[in-house]
Amino acid sequence: MALDYSSLGFKAIIAKLDNGVLVVTLNRAKQRNTFGDTLPAELIQVFDIADRDDRVRVVVLTAEHTAPAFCSGADISKGWGMLFRPEEDLEGETAHRDGGGQVTMAIYKCRKLTIAAVNGHAAGVGMTAMQLPFDFRFVWEGAKLVFPFVRRGINPEAASTYLLPRLLGHSRANSLLLSGITVSPTSPLISNLYHEILPRREDVFPAALALAKDLAINTSQISVAYTKGLLQHPGDTIEENHILDSRAIKLLGSGKDAAEGALSFKERRNPKFPDTLSKNSSPWYPWWRTVDVKHHKAKL
Amino acid sequence: MALDYSSLGFKAIIAKLDNGVLVVTLNRAKQRNTFGDTLPAELIQVFDIADRDDRVRVVVLTAEHTAPAFCSGADISKGWGMLFRPEEDLEGETAHRDGGGQVTMAIYKCRKLTIAAVNGHAAGVGMTAMQLPFDFRFVWEGAKLVFPFVRRGINPEAASTYLLPRLLGHSRANSLLLSGITVSPTSPLISNLYHEILPRREDVFPAALALAKDLAINTSQISVAYTKGLLQHPGDTIEENHILDSRAIKLLGSGKDAAEGALSFKERRNPKFPDTLSKNSSPWYPWWRTVDVKHHKAKL
Amino acid sequence: MALDYSSLGFKAIIAKLDNGVLVVTLNRAKQRNTFGDTLPAELIQVFDIADRDDRVRVVVLTAEHTAPAFCSGADISKGWGMLFRPEEDLEGETAHRDGGGQVTMAIYKCRKLTIAAVNGHAAGVGMTAMQLPFDFRFVWEGAKLVFPFVRRGINPEAASTYLLPRLLGHSRANSLLLSGITVSPTSPLISNLYHEILPRREDVFPAALALAKDLAINTSQISVAYTKGLLQHPGDTIEENHILDSRAIKLLGSGKDAAEGALSFKERRNPKFPDTLSKNSSPWYPWWRTVDVKHHKAKL
Lengths: 300, 300, 300
Hints:
Chain A has helices at 39-52, 86-90, 99-108, 160-168, 170-179, 201-218, 221-232, 238-253, 256-266, 277-280; strands at 13-18, 21-26, 58-63, 113-118, 122-123, 136-140, 145-146, 182-183, 196-198. The first copy, chain A, is of the alpha/beta class. Chain A has two domains: 5-217, Alpha-Beta Complex (2-enoyl-CoA Hydratase, Chain A, domain 1), CATH 3.90.226.10; 220-280, Lyase 2-enoyl-coa Hydratase, Chain  A, domain 2 (Orthogonal Bundle). In chain A, strands 1-2-3-4-6-9 form a six-stranded mixed sheet, sandwiched between helices. Chains A and C meet through α3, α4 and α5 of A and α4, α6, α7, α8 and α9 of C.
C-alpha cells in the first residue's frame, strides 16, 4: 500500500503529494519559521522518503506567504548552545555534525527535482540549507536576504562555503559570505541565485508550482537522477566526463523513457514516462564514492 | 605545399581559410543542420587540422543565416538508434563513445582561438558540442535555445555536465539542464554564455568575423595556446598555478613574440608575431596528462 | 609597543592604520602606478604584516584618484627583461617566480578582509595581482580595464588563470583573457567582478572605506579567517566541507566572539568582538597543506 504523507506525524512541516509533486510547507509561522525543534529532523525525513518514493517527481519547499519570514534562521536569543547536542560533546571536539549541513545533504542527495519557493525574508540557515541545495529557487522581490555569520562570531554552515561559490562563482560568494550584508534578490550580488524573481509574495509559490507541474509531467525520473548525478559528480576531467556521459547515454538511450521521449516529441504530445528509479536504475549508479559523514563513536 | 581546405572533400561543412581565419560553415540547411551523416566526422577532422596548421589563428563555426536552424540537434524521428554503432554494441555496455563528446573534445583541444557564431535556433547537441567547447560565442537575440535532454528520457551529453557549470556556475547550469526549458539569449538564465548578443540573424557572423580578424592579427599563436592550456589545466592549487604561469612567463617572455609584443605596443602599431606552434612550443607543453578516451577492444 | 606603519620606510606605498582599517595607497602616480621598483616587495611586506597584526581587521588598497591610472601594469617600454632576476637565470629555466604571483599570494593568504578600490584605469598586473586576490573590488565606472597578455606575446600571470575563472566562471574569464580586449566595468563581460561600480573616480575610495569601517566594527576577526579558509579550502566533496564547517562551528560557536555576536544581536547594538587570531585560533587551523613555492637552489 502506498505511503500516505499525512500519516507521518509531521509537526514542523506539512507534506502533500499530488500528481507527482510533493509540496512541503513550513509550519512554524509563529516562530518565524526558525530552524529548530523537530524541523531539521522532519526535513531530513521527508527528503529521504521523497528520494525513494517513485511517485514523487518534484519536491517544492515553501512557507505560508503571510508568515513573518520564509525562515529567519536559528533562534539565537539564548546563544549558540542549541546548536550542540550533549551526547556529541561527550565524544570530543570532532564529533559535532552541523544540523544545517545534515538537512543540506538530505536535499542535495535527493534524486528528484527540488524547488525552493522563498516567499519571505531569509537569514542564516534560511539562506543556506533552506535554499542552496535545491535545483531551482524562486523568490519574492521584496525579500530581505542575509548570510550574517561573520557578524555573529561564527562561520557559514550547512556546506554553504562549498555550494555558494559553485552556484554563483567566488566573486559573488565572497561578497555575500564575507560581508554579511543584507541584500534584495534583484541585487547583482545575488540575482543569479534565482531561477525567477516574483514581484509579490503570493506569486512565488504558484510560479514554483507551475514549473513543478510541468516538470512532473514532462521529465523522465531516470533522466533527472542521472543528470543530477553528472552535475554533482562530473568526473575530474573532461575526458572522464565524456566517458561517464557516454555510458549514461548508452544506458538511458536504450531504455523505455528514451523511446517514449522520442516518440512523444515526434507526435507533439506530452510523454508518459514509464521508468522508475526503484526498477530501472543500474548497478553502475552511483558511480561516485558515497561517503558516510556520521561520527564514529570512540567508545562502546 | 600548403594544405587547400577545399581539397578535403567535405560535404556537411564548407571550410575556407583567409588571412589566419578559418571559417567553417554548416552545409546541411535542408536537414535543419541536424547533427548526422558525415557532420561529426568532418568537424572532428577540420578542428584537428586547424589545431596543427600554423596558418590558422582563429576558427569560426557558423551556419547560413537563412537556414531553418543553426543546429536543431540530432534527428530523433526514428528514435535513438542512430546514436549507437553496431561494432560498439558487440563490445559491451562500456564501449560506446558519444559522438557529440568526440566533437566537443576536438574543438576543446584545438590550440587556436575558436568562435561559434550562432545565427539561428539551437537544440540539444546544437547547444552542447556546437557551442560549449568554444572560446567565444556570438548569438542572434531571436534564437530559441534549449537543452531538452530530461524531457526526452536521456541525459545531457557532449561533456555538457562538465562544461556548462564551469562556464556559467551551477545555478544557471542546473536551471537549464534540469528543466529543459526553451530560453532566449537575453534570459538571465543563459545570457552569460555569450560574448555578444546581436539583434539580427545576419549580424551574427559579421560580428564574429570582425573579432576573428582582430584576433588573427593582434594575438600571438603561442600566447593563445599557453593561455588556453592554463585556463583548462590551471593546476590543483593557487600555488601550482603560480608555478605553472611563472614557467610560462619565463618561456614566452624570452621569446620573439614577446619582444614583438612589447615593441609594437611601444610603437603603437599592429604586431607581426613570428612564432608558431610547430616550431616554438616547448617539450614542457602540454604539462597535463593527455588521456586516451578510446575504447580498448576486449578481443583481437 | 605596537608597530607604527609610518616607520617601515615604504616608498612605493603609503600605509595608515585607523580603527582597524589599514589603508594602503599606491604612491607612484608619476610612473602611472606601474608595477615596478620596490612596489611588489612593499605590497608583499604590508599584507604579510596586516595578516599578523591583530589590530588590522580590513585592508583597503587604492591609488590617488587624480593619478593617470590605478595601475597601468608593468613598464614594458624596455621589453620584458625587468621580469627576470639574474640570480634566477643562473638557476635554470624552472627557477623563475613571477613577481605578480608573489603579490597575489601575499594578498590571497592574508587572513583579514581585503578591499581593492580601483579608482582609475587598470591594465595587466593592475587587473591581476592588484585586483583578483581581494575579497571585494570597488571600481570607477569610467575605468578602462584590460588583460592584454595574448596581444603582447606572453601569458596571463599572477595566478589569474586560477583566480579569474573561479571568480566569474570560464565563459567570462575566457572572453577577457583570450581576447585581450579593453572593457568598461559595466560590460556584462566583467561587471560580476565588482562589489560596487561608482560613477565618479572620487567616489570609489569613500565607498570602499565605508564598507571597511562597517566590517572593522561588525565582523569577528576569527570568523573572517575561518570563513576565508573555508572558501579557499572547502574540501574536495560536500561531505568533507560538511565535516570542516561542522568542526569550525563547534570551535567558533563555543567562543567569546560567538557569545558576543548573539548577545549584541539580541540587544540590537554593535558588537565588541574580543577574540584575536594570535590568541584564539586553534592548532587545527590551517587544515590544508601549506605549500612552499620558493625555488630550491640546485647548488650550494
